[in-house]
Specification:
This protein is an alpha+beta fold. The protein is about 60% helix and about 15% strand.
């Protein structure tokens, strides 16, 4: 039964959220709300996990990812549906009976303070739903041989891009280019930079 499995997953996330002291739930939620307001490049569950560990909370990374996804989905959905803080709490209570009063009060307060900003940012993002580049790494390599050529001796550039998708998840994309391809890529970036300086 998918509905039972979904309910179990929600209750597990709610249990983990309610196990956090209110000040840590506030800090975790603010990290996510800051992203949803467009002030940071993503909601980083690894950073949230590190903050929780520093505060003495022992929680596995999978549980932190579950909390992060649940709160992202909750706040994003509340913004999309234009919920007030009271409506948000009501929907949360409908979804699970395991909520603590302190956790619901914390989320109510945070949504009262940040809900309008999240809704405004969502309107902007709906017009521009593309990923955002947050990091780029490169390295130069040399292909010495292949299965079809014994003496290849061909240089290449390997790129690793870190991108925040519209969903908030950070993903990595890797690809390789020959030197002429990289030179063309570089030329295009220089042209973009020159145009951006005129704006």
């Amino acid at each position: 039964m998918p509905a039972a499995e979904e309910s179990h997953g929600i209750n597990r996330a709610v249990d983990k959220i309610c196990s956090l002291p209110p000040y840590l739930l506030t800090e975790t939620s603010q990290h996510i709300l800051t992203y949803l307001q467009g002030q940071t490049s993503g909601a980083d569950s690894a950073e949230i996990a590190l903050r929780l560990q520093r505060a003495g909370v022992t929680i596995d990374h999978e549980a932190v990812q579950g909390i992060t996804r649940f709160l992202l989905l909750t706040f994003r959905s509340a913004g999309k549906n234009n919920f007030s803080a009271d409506e948000l709490v009501s929907k949360l209570e409908e979804g699970s009976s395991k909520w603590s009063k302190a956790s619901l009060q914390t989320l109510h307060t945070l949504w009262s303070e940040h809900g309008a900003s999240v809704r405004a940012q969502q309107e902007v993002q709906s017009m521009l739903s593309i990923g955002q580049l947050v990091d780029m790494q490169w390295k130069l390599g040399m292909a010495v041989s292949s299965d079809t050529c014994r003496s290849l001796n061909s240089p290449y550039v390997s790129l690793l891009l870190k991108i925040v998708e519209p969903s908030g998840q950070i993903c990595q994309r890797a690809f390789e280019m020959t030197i002429p391809q990289f030179q063309n890529f570089h030329k295009q970036f220089k042209e973009m930079a020159a145009i951006m300086e005129t704006v």
